[in-house]
Design a protein that fits this description.
The chain has about 260 residues and is an all-alpha fold. The model has no long low-confidence stretch (mean pLDDT about 90).
């Protein structure tokens, strides 16, 4: 589970409700079915109108991505792996790496190494793998855009909900006490709209983009590693080349580990 998504969501809810209590507002004002319908159902309706069915069907999967940690090979794991493969390729030839293919769980990496073993050119391999990354990036951006648009619609629907609530309140001008409660309830829709837009939907979109970026970087490392082996670079050179994708502290640690490992 991605604990930051869950923690952030809970923290956002606590911040709003606790803040309301500190301001002297009653928690019961949030129990407003009309505001909930206008904001959340209205946002869903807007998103459904804005995006094709094929993309809307992916929303449940997107929530899974937000709240689950995808198990993916890391750059720290890739560097020694490519170092080992480079040594094998220089000693025994590229065809010797064919025995490594069944051990690779990542389809992208397995396909890239398979093309190298099959004798495809470096340019062809780069083009194919880069196009696959671009296609993946487009799919990911489409998912993030759904939440981004929801974050745009929700606050505006909050204003709409407030207007509807004020219209209802103004029909009850003769009862001052009820009028005050009605006006307060009218602005609950605005609260829901702003909260959902800037605490839920926009942050969700940003997290999807960040997770996509992390996956893209890992795949770029895979491309560079495969092409470096194809070019016959040494294990040490490949380690130094791929380590640039890591922060300074992690880069230094992994290079030192390589020196200790290889003597």
């Amino acid at each position: 589970m991605d604990k930051t998504s869950l923690f952030g969501l809970l923290l956002g809810i606590i911040a709003v409700t606790f803040g309301m209590l500190l301001k002297g507002a009653e928690f019961s004002v949030l129990i407003n079915p009309a505001a909930i319908v206008i904001i959340f159902l209205g946002t869903i309706a807007s998103v459904v109108i804005a995006f094709p069915t094929s993309e809307i069907k992916r929303v449940p999967k997107l929530f899974g991505i937000l709240f689950k940690e995808k198990k993916m090979i890391t750059i720290q794991e890739l560097i020694p792996m490519f170092s080992e493969w480079a040594q094998i390729a220089r000693k025994e030839g590229l065809l010797a790496l064919e025995a490594k293919l069944p051990e690779i769980d990542d389809p992208f990496l397995r396909n890239g190494l398979s093309m190298a073993v099959d004798g495809q050119s470096a340019e062809f391999i780069r083009d194919v793998m880069t196009e696959e990354i671009e296609a993946m990036e487009d799919r990911h951006e489409g998912g993030a855009q759904i939440f981004s648009q929801a974050g745009t619609y929700a606050p505006t629907l909050g204003v709409l909900g407030a207007v509807v609530g004020l219209i209802a309140a103004l029909t009850n001008l003769e009862n001052v006490e009820e009028l005050g409660k009605s006006i307060g309830a009218a602005f609950v829709a605005t609260l829901f709209g702003i909260f959902s837009g800037y605490v839920l939907w926009h942050p969700f979109a940003n997290k999807l983009r960040r997770k996509s970026k992390q996956e893209i970087i890992v795949r770029q490392v895979m491309i560079e590693g495969i092409l470096s082996i194809l070019e016959g670079q040494s294990a040490r050179a490949i380690e130094q080349k791929l380590a640039i994708y890591l922060p300074d502290k992690e880069r230094k640690a992994i290079l030192e580990e390589s020196v200790n490992r290889n003597g």
